Amino acid sequence: MVVAGTAKERMQWNVDSLWAGSFVDRDRAGARAHLATAREVSFGGNYREAEQLVQKQFRSERCPRNHQTPAAWN
To answer: pTM for this one?
Structure first.
């Protein structure tokens, strides 16, 4: 996040790439097979069903991390 004015700028970092640890592959295998259905349901106006489908078929397993702001400069 960048907060800026005319006199000073503050940068605040909070992204996974700054955290210690190895790369976590969060791509969900087989998700593409459900894309057409998710679009059809969503465009049909059934947003709740579309959201449930996307949650189940597209989102990866949660990766627990402590997302505190690791660095901020004033």
So the answer is: 0.52
